[in-house]
Amino acid sequence: MDTLPPHVRDAVAEACERVRLAYRATIYDLGGPINFLYFPIDAVISVVTVMRDGTQIEVVTIGREGVTGAQVLLDGGVATALTWCQVAGEAYRIDVGNFRRLCETHPEFRAIAERFLSAQLDVMAQAIACNRLHYVSERCARWLLMTYDRVGRADFPLTHEALATMLGVRRAGVSIAAAALQQAGYIRYVRGKFTVIDRIGLETASCECYGANNEALSRRLYAIAV
Question: Which residues, 6 or more positions from 223, have their beta carbon under 8 angstroms from its beta carbon?
């Protein structure tokens, strides 16, 4: 949003309201309508695929860098995945009608929303490779780093069960990975709260996908619109 001209930022701000998103709050149900779009401030939102047996795995994380529901630019506004709040926090909310109106009247705003959609495709493609090729400990470090970046602080509430769901692995695997990261001095985990102690160390423990995702977001979001 910082790349938008001031008058466009003002128009977007006027159309939004600031809301508090609770942990596990449903943003969109699978197959349900997209009535509002959310621009997270320090909340973290997870888009997950749900299998027939109820197993879930995260396909993309959305934080302060993006917006939920931007696919309304491409279709009729029906959610194709379950979307819920993973880390509670603040967000700006805009109804879908105003979002579409702003996209029509301000091409710069539509362009940045479309670039975010393109970045999401890059990130999802990277996630396919990451889930198949990288160790749980590396993926755990990557997810914690991504969350750290999005909430803008070193500590955030997160259970082993929730992290295991996001990574699509068993809780025991996450517990082992978190214990190793804590023993290395990179994080601290106490009573459902993670604290990043050594961010640089945590980055060395992460797989290459953390850097690849950041590069994809930077390349798309800060590209010069034509």
Answer: 115
What are the residue ranges of helices labelled H in the chain?
6-15, 96-105, 107-133, 136-151, 160-167, 171-183, 199-205, 209-221
CB distance 37 to 83 below 8 Å:
no
Those residues with Cβ within 8 angstroms of residue 89's Cβ, 6 or more apart along the chain or in another chain: 20, 21, 40, 41, 42, 43, 44, 151
Residues 6+ positions from 190 with CB-CB distance below 8 Å: none
DSSP 221: H
3-state class of 31 per DSSP? Answer: coil
Query: Hey, which residues does 155 pair with through a beta bridge?
Result: 195
pLDDT tens digits, 156-178: 999 998 899 889 889 999 999 99
The number of C-alpha atoms within 13 Å of 158 and in the hemisphere containing its C-beta is 33
CA distances from 4 to 30, 106, 110, 139, 225 (A): 32, 10, 11, 33, 11
The answer on pLDDT for 69 being more than 90 is yes
What local confidence, expressed as pLDDT, does residue 2 receive?
67
pTM: 0.90
